[in-house]
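Kindly inspect this today.
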Amino acid sequence: MSYPRGLSPVQTEPGVLVHPGADRQLATEHWLLSTLTDRKRAAARMEWREKGATLLPMGTLMSAVRLPARLVLAATGGMFPSGEVDRILAAALDGGPVICDPGNTSFYALVPASVPRTWTDALEDWRPLDVDCLGRGSGLVVPRLNLTRYQGNRFMYWSVPMSSAATLCPPLRVARLIAAGVHELGEEATGVQG
């Protein structure tokens, strides 16, 4: 078989599916919106298109751990917001999705829905740092999936983009990031006992 000049076949292992980025993004969008009714889903898509963000319920498919920027910056040694911090977060959280909200100087690590129930004691210890977990009964403003860089404004973006549907931050990695930030800030500055 001949191929057009400059193109050659892509070799894959038998049984390996290759999904283009657009397909993954569409599947991720469907997954994120699957907790909404059909009517609310259409409204959320319109908000993503027109406003760049929409409010999604937490606690069914996922929860979110709110991390104040000062804690994240202490753990990463970076400046807020920056591509450097985004890259360090991606490595520290094993590529798990994180939303940055420059307007509220916070990051939101998306985690399994069970985290608010399993982290009760740890969250009490971290509350003086303004760490919180958004679970059932709360919502999170989620930016459109293609907003993946800080644009020099106060608008939310994906600090670490969601790579595919149902891919979340490993809770242990999030806890280690928090612990690293606490360590760097020091117990005197936080009031947190380690």
User: Anything to note?
Assistant: The mean pLDDT is 87. The beta strands are 53-57, 62-68, 98-101, 106-112, 132-134, 139-143, 157-160. Residues 21-190 form one domain.
